[in-house]
Every structure is written in structure tokens, then in C-alpha cells.
Amino acid sequence: MKWFFGLVVLLNLLVALWGTLSERAPGDLHALEVNPQGIKLLPGGWRSEEATPAEASRPLAEVQPAAASELPATLDAPAVASATVAKPVKPAAPADKRAEAARADQGAAVCRQWGELTDAQLARVRAGLAPLGLAAAETAREGAPASGKFWVYLPRRATPEATRALSAELKLKGFDNYPVASDPERQGALSLGLFAKEEGANALLAKLKAAGVADARVERRGKPERATTLRFAALSPDADARLAALQARLLPGVPLKTCR
């Protein structure tokens, strides 16, 4: 019996040694190669013959989600990243819209001048500007006298007797005249004529000097009227429209002009 037991042990050792020698070395890269001819395409509903009866009886749709749930969570990261869409950044709103509007109005501002206006016209315009809240810089100059007529005269003499003697002498030379009594500033002077045009007055003056009357003079009659020009600087479009409406209503004959 001992020799039989020893023979069994020896056979076991030989079988183990043969199994060890028949295995491929772990480091052999050729052991990892896959034979393309050994790959087979399986149908969608294929189940392994080694599946348990319970698994074989389960629908395929119930088995697949369970397998899918075993996938690592990191596989969903690309999908989550691709589903995230960057929202466009809206431009920042202006810090102060009123300041921006003020700059726009300043860029569109205009300058207007209105005139020349007589004293009566200026009074009407001032009354019309007050409700509109528009201010203007005024520039005035002395205008032409109201009547525009030219007067030829001789200054008064030292005494009334001297004035009467000169008047008689002028009449003898053919120059009609009369003494001034209504004008306090020219009272006692001798008036020789009133002309609408300056040329007529100068012609009479030349005749008087030719006749030996050297102190004859020409003066334009009437009180000089002041002429005023209004200047409106930096008008907004709305203020410019309101000023134009006022000009058309009060003085259509005196237009508004752009400042020079």
C-alpha cells in the first residue's frame, strides 16, 4: 500500500509540474493579443447560456439599465459640461444716464441772435421771454433818429435884435427863414428848411456858404432810437423751437439768425 500511495503523490506532482510549464509567462505581450477571427457579433437579445433561470426570465430592458448604472460616475462629466451653456455678458449700463443726456444736449446746442430791435420791440420780446424762462445777453447801440429828416439852420445870435437883422438879410438874398420858438434847445435859431434827403440839405448849405453865410449847419432831426440785439447762447433743441415760435408770433419781420 505504501508504494501505491507514493505512486499517487508522484503522479500529482508530475501533473502540477506539467500545468505550470504549459502556462504562458505573464510578461509575454503576445498573450494579450486578440485573434480577430475569434470575435463574433452577438444579436441584441442574446443571453449567456450560463445565466441563471431568474436572470433568463427577466426582460432585457430590466437587465441593461442595471449594467449601465455600474458605469463610473466620471463618464457623465462630459455630458454635464456640454449641457452647460455660457450666458452672454450684458454690457454695463451707464453710471449716470442724466449726465449722458446732458452731454448729448450740449453737443446739439445752438446759438441764436435776434435783432436789431427798437425799444418798443424789445419791451414786447422781454415780456414774451419771461414765461419761457429764456435769458439773453443784450447788446445796444444808438440808431438813426426816428424822423430821419435833415434840418438846415443858423445858430441863434447874441441878442434878438441881431437875429432879426440876420433874418432880414437872408430874405434879401433869397433864403426864406423863420425863427425857432417851440424847441427849447434851438430857441432863437433861424430855420432855413427841412429835407427828407441829406443831399437836398447839403445843396442848400452850399448855396448859403456861397452867399457868405459861413455858420449855416445841417442836423438830423428826431430823437435817436436805441437798437438792441439779443444773443441766446447754448440753446437746446427744445428751447430753440420755443424761441422760433415766439419770434414768429411777435416779430415775424425780424428773423432769428445763427450767431456769428
UniProtKB/TrEMBL annotation:
The UniProt entry, under InterPro entries, shows: SPOR-like_dom (IPR007730), SPOR-like_sf (IPR036680)
Q: Which residues form the SPOR domain?
A: 146-216
Pfam families tied to this protein: SPOR
Q: Which SUPFAM superfamilies match?
A: Sporulation related repeat (SSF110997)
Which molecular function term from Gene Ontology is one that the record holds? Answer: peptidoglycan binding
Give the protein's recorded name. SPOR domain-containing protein
Q: What species is given as this protein's source?
A: Crenobacter luteus
The organism that produces this protein has a lineage beginning with: Bacteria, Pseudomonadati, Pseudomonadota, Betaproteobacteria, Neisseriales
